[in-house]
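Friendly challenge for the regulars: who can give me the structure tokens for this chain first? No prize, just bragging rights.
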Amino acid sequence: MTTGNGVFVFPSLEALIARMETGLAELEEQRDTRRYFHETYLRTTRAVGDELKRGGFGDPGWVERWDVTFADLYLDALEASTHGGKVPGPWAAAFGARTVPPLRHVLLGMNAHINYDLPQALLAVISDSEFGDPALLARREADHRHIDRVLAALVDKGSGLGWANRLATKRFLAEARAKVWINASVLAAARRRGILQTRLADLERLATAKVAELTKPGPVLLRLAVGGFGVALPDDSDTLPDDEGGG
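First reply, four minutes later:
Bragging rights claimed.
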């Protein structure tokens, strides 16, 4: 947003959390099944905020900007779903699943937000020049990996899962987020080549296709720990001419 004098002010994580708390209260009042993922994601956002306050990240300003950008992708999809707007495929599947158990609602939301939204959030806060700076990119990746530890701690203390399911959840979250980092690099290459929208469509199809696996009967957390939760966007940059798309 901008102030009256035209200076850009980035929304804070505290403002984001307040917005999400208001949204959760509304979803709970309506007994809306979308509350299951929203509540889980709110806990995650709070945990990242606590880690920021603790000084656990190398570049806290960048992490906060990234986290707010990331959350906005979900909140925009939620608002579009509420008001009959266009919703990306993975989110349409997550929001439209009305009869699955709460855990499946959470997993469907995680699929849309991690596999589809997260690479886009990284792309939004890492410029092409930064992708070309190995030292800076390594710092960004280190902060990305550090969130794995935040998530693992959250699973251990707040998930209510048994030990086997906690282990499985931590394993597939780390696996999915590792693929996210690679997918963000693939999208960055596509952006440089002028074919970003094509690759985003590919990512949307992959994340939407994952829904079938998440809704199959059986011990889903253990199955994901073995088969994987993430999606891999093929890197075809080596097969494209360097000047395709005009840069």
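The radius of gyration is 18 Å. The mean pLDDT is 91. Your move, everyone else.
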